[in-house]
Records
---
Amino acid sequence: MLSILFKLLSFLPLPVIHGIGVLVGWVSYWSDEKFSRRIRNNLHNIKFCPDLKAHARLVRLNVSETGKGMVETFAIWLKSDASLLKWMKRCEGWQYVEQAIAEKKGIIFLTPHLGCYEIISRYYATKHPITILYSPARESWLNEMMKQGRQHGGTTLAPANLSGVRCLLKALKRGETVGILPDQVPDLGDGVWATYFDQPAYSMNLVSKLVEATNATVLLAYGERLTWGQGYVFHIEPLNTDSSAQGINDAIEQLVRKKPEQYLWSYRRFKKPQLAREKRIKAQADEA
């Protein structure tokens, strides 16, 4: 039943999808205390806004944008490439991709939880192969839909574990592109502590290792969500810092400041890291 509803959703015009998203965002805000508290607390703790009025305004904007992101994701997963490309109005910074390809270098796309990140890989895969590092969803039905939705055209999925990292290395050594969400909290032992908006945040150090092994070009990318469902703009720019965890956090922070209302402030970016699921299960078995 859900798959039918989501398929019907994908046929709707983008302004309608985003209108539904605004409604979903506010229903989530008023019905899910954890969701609403994370948005308020994250924005408050990083002292992003100069006063309470600006804080309240940014919270309101972010609730609507987060809801749009929830709903548009399912539509993007289920749309054909041809119809999806109509939503991408322009791409700024594509010359950096062409330069890396001309130099026969692999590309690492760092796509934070900013704007519409799901459309980035779909768009890129219509032009060049891309391997995406992903973490499985907890719900089996959602995980299956996510895998099917992301594996379009030239897209390969790599799980966020050792075998997935090997897939990324192989792709980069072939001169291909990989995509990583750099602001995800890695498992304990797979990252380092660094500051993010002046707050301690456990951050991945995978990118620096990939660069060291392959000399790949690192690019920052995000899909800006235009107002009133007009579509998206694909922004690409080079990483102008080193590829350390701190350097990447600083670069992401600068991106977020451009469109703070479109960042996923409901994400638990500052949570304490945990052991990987496989290691937790083994540890529990050893204690039994």
---
Amino acid sequence: MMHLVEVKNANYGYAHAFQLGGISFKVMQGMLAGIIGPNGSGKSTLLKGISGELALPDNQVFLNGNDLAGFSETERAKEIAVVTQFSEPIDISVEEYVLMGRIPYRKKYQFFETERDHEIAHKYMRLTGIFPLRAKKFSKLSGGEQQLASIAKALTQEPSLLLLDEPTSHLDISHQVQILDLVHRLTKETGLTVIMVIHDLNLASEYCDYLMLMRSGALYRQGTPNAILNSRNIEDVYKTEVHTQENPRSKKPAVFLVSNKTGQVRRPTKFYLS
């Protein structure tokens, strides 16, 4: 299995402000990699460089061995799709919204979608379960449905890399599990590579193959969930006392908060068994 993404000593960021501190890692094809860490640690900055939202220096981020700094917007859009935490409440149909994922493939002076575009959009609407909603206005969907539609649009780009920025934030438990089950299945069945920023450590543990734990713009630790999600690492980075133990079903680490009031383990409300 080959490395799809390679980041070498990345130090990009915002001019005269936050900069990453020399981050290096590799993500293999078909892997679901999670970026975790407290607010302000650089998770979104790291993702925005890969997505193209932030300008990249040469020779820091590579896709299939090619320097992403040299990609045009169209070339990048054919290889990388991005799903953000929030979607704009666009007043168009779900099908029209999903078809926007085909824009990078339009030829000059092509103003309408082809039959092939519709076939691809329908394929991913069915895969994400939103095909029955295709005629409904996107703005009328629930938060979970909008996120599924956003994933369908991203998949319609037919990318090799999918970037997710907190895809389950503000969603109920049912939609959180539905979305991450889908993403996990895509990596295993289609070879899609996913890099995801995620706050919930228990979800990260259950679904991610590989984790990158960030602190103050640097990569504090990286490895499998079993290697990363222990009390020492979490307490060092988050400055919060926790207790970890093995999930009896998945054999992955489960993270429990410790109340400052009682000193007793406080079991999380978000605890998922796969």
---
Amino acid sequence: MAGNTSTFTTIIKRVAQDNSDVVLDWNGILLNAIYEDKTTPPVASRNMAITQTAVFDAINSITGTYKNYHFTGTAPTIVSAEAAAASAAHQVLINLYPGQKSYFDNALTASLAEITDGTAEDNGVTFGRTVADDILTFRSGDGSSNTITYTPGTNPGQWQPTSPGFASALLPQWGQVTPFALTSGDQFRPDGTPALNSADYTTEFNQVKDLGSKNSTTRTAEQTQIARFWADGSGTFTPPGHWNQIAQNVTAEKGNSLVDNARVFALLNISLADAGIAAWDAKYTYNFWRPITAIQNADSDGNANTIADATWTPLLTTPPFPEYISGHSTFSGAAETILTGLLGNNVNFTTNSLGTPGIYRTFSNFTNAANEAGVSRIYGGIHFNSANVEGLATGRS
């Protein structure tokens, strides 16, 4: 296994559930892989969708409960759904994360040890691989590996690389990736940002300048905690992974059937993957500057009511891609909508975050969690409010 084995053991404990099944187990293994690889949020969302649709199609082909996502073949008559699910997840993951193959091999061995040896298990392993290969082939030409040339702007309002790393723009091609369910990345493209000289922009500018500053005196201790709790940066499960962790907690409590859990995670991750594509389409369509650039260079924006502060820095490190719309908000709006539709919105749950060890936050519904995740980016100083509001709306679409 690539990386630190003790780290993997720790993270597995954080996502394990007492009332688990093979779907939840392999969703946890997937999150561990994302953590270890430091996968970026859009790529993580794609990888989760591929894995979970393969798991769903493997199980559902056996139970015949719902319509498959893509696989059209026929399952063997004698077959273990648990073996098929584990094998499908394993086959996807060794292709997406080949450097972690020994970890996945060990996990598959552990999964199969829980299943009675024999024809049903053997057929399940073979069938799971077949379904996984079908999904992998289906997504192989989706444009995710394409590269395009992106040149940052220099005019007021245009995105520019930001301190401290001044990294190049991340994944400018991602809005052109073939969606899993949407017709195209621009299907729900929002209308755009407020004009720099507008009253709306002035309000949003001053809001994030005040609340999002690293040295803010008006941001409360809880708001600071919220910003860090939902940051989900490198070395975490990422924002879409955080929503998978929430889904694990809730589905484990509900005690769903195997196929119903598989369906929850397939639909959740299809929506998250498409949310990432939609958000990145908007980001690289509007190419809007981040608060740190806007505030430090406000004397160039043509707005007498925005006052520059050349020393202003945000609470959180600004990620290397355009501001509008918020990826966090788009992911959260999508997750909220799917989970509410499948599990209801009167669901009490508690979740933690790798970014704030030992801190837990409790919610009475998915909507409240999504709204908090969205506004956290203002508290963190890396988004304006319209990016949050319209990101949530895009995700919910």
